[in-house]
Design brief:
This protein is of the alpha/beta class. It folds into 3 domains: 2-134, 3-Layer(aba) Sandwich (Rossmann fold), CATH 3.40.50.300; 140-201, Helicase, Ruva Protein, domain 3 (Orthogonal Bundle), CATH 1.10.8.60; 204-342, Zinc Finger, Delta Prime, domain 3, CATH 1.20.272. It is 55% helix and 8% strand. A 5-stranded parallel beta sheet has the order 2-3-4-1-5, with helices on both faces. α11 packs antiparallel against α12, α12 (222-234) runs antiparallel to α17 and α16 (293-311) packs antiparallel against α17. The protein is elongated and about 75 Å long. The relative contact order is 0.08.
């Protein structure tokens, strides 16, 4: 039996894979009759042996291959595969199709793919024999329904406004969403989950404030940027920690600009940046579009000056950040300096005149 599981929703793909494994018989015996391969590394002979081997003391043999169809994908310009011919690619898609279309009844073969195109030559030849299940990233209303169902399954309940907030913060990464829901249900301890619970417990709320502050800096909105900075400081974030968060976000913006310029898909960019959450990726790409390279260089210089000011105690932490935010929000290139009577003191927030 042949299954193809594809889509951006990696969490649902993994759940379906587990369901198929459980349907194949005794898990203890199945573990000794399971082979797992990477499609880019396995060759035809290895796959043929794995699929045609008789299961040992079990009715089923499980073979899982990640990305087998990908090496036969038609690239732009009509080329197939990655360009270099390796042992893995010398066997034609017809040979693979012949094997996959005539699997022994005892073999359960599961292909895990990120994306399957209709023009994939191997997929064309095996689609009629395979059960193809697609798990796209959930959007808006579907995601809200999934959150409500998951909370209910865990024995909890949740305010509709809290559902929307959770969806906005985490996005369609269901693995992360599931983990956060588990924590929230335990935290609520029988009562309904509210927005305040999410603000207190979900780690992304701090990142949201940092993103909002970066947005305000892009717009040269000093009042909003300063307000968000003070909010983060009141919530316990240290000046050094906040500066590190700003530095990290600026590095992500620079790298995102470079990768987007290479016309890479968003999922590939997320992987290369090491970003685990849809919300973080979405905001980073938005900000990368709004920052020019000269502006980024200017911001980096100002972040460096703030870092030096903190480490050399030129100014105390809060004041150094006030100066930094004022400079970042000042559209002219003229530097901002602290009033003399505020040097090395914790003073009131001040503004550029």
């Amino acid at each position: 039996m042949l299954y193809i599981l594809s889509g951006e929703d990696e969490f649902s793909v993994s759940l379906e894979l587990e369901r198929l494994k459980n349907s194949a018989g005794d898990p203890t015996m199945l573990s000794t009759n399971t082979s797992i391969f990477e499609g880019g590394q396995i060759n035809f002979t290895e796959l043929k042996i794995a699929c045609e081997t008789v299961p040992f003391l079990s009715d089923k043999r499980l073979v899982v291959v990640y990305g087998l169809l990908e090496k036969f994908a038609v690239k732009s310009g009509g080329a197939r595969g990655s360009g270099k011919k390796t042992e893995n690619q010398t066997a034609s898609h017809e040979m693979y199709a012949e094997l996959l279309n005539h699997l022994p009844d005892s073999t359960l073969l599961i292909l895990i793919e990120h994306d399957v195109k209709e023009n994939n030559p191997l997929f064309k030849l095996i689609s009629s024999s395979a059960t193809h299940k697609i798990f796209p990233a959930l959007k808006a209303q579907d995601l809200h329904q999934w959150v409500n169902q998951r909370v209910s399954d865990e024995g909890g309940s949740i305010n509709p406004n809290a559902v929307r907030l959770l969806a906005r913060l985490i996005g369609s990464n269901l693995r992360v969403m599931s983990s956060e829901i588990n924590k929230l249900v335990l935290y609520a301890d029988g009562r309904r989950i509210e927005e305040d619970d999410i603000n207190q417990l979900v780690a992304y709320t701090q990142e949201v404030s940092v993103f909002a502050m970066v947005d305000a800096i892009v717009e040269f909105n000093l009042q909003k940027a300063e307000s968000l900075m003070q909010q983060l400081l009141k919530e316990g974030e240290s000046p050094v920690g906040l500066l590190a968060m700003l530095n990290r976000q600026m590095r992500l913006i620079v790298r995102a600009r470079e990768l987007k310029g290479q016309k890479l898909p968003d999922m590939e960019i997320r992987s290369r940046l090491g970003i685990g959450h849809d919300f973080v990726l979405r905001k980073t790409l938005e900000q990368a579009q709004r920052y020019t390279l000269p502006r980024l260089r200017q911001v980096y210089d100002q972040l460096l000056e703030a870092d030096i000011a903190l480490k050399t105690s030129k100014y105390e932490g809060d004041l150094a950040l006030n100066i930094l935010v004022a400079e970042l929000c000042y559209s002219d290139t003229k530097p901002v300096t602290a009033p003399k009577n505020l040097s090395k003191s914790r003073g009131e927030s001040w503004r550029v005149k």
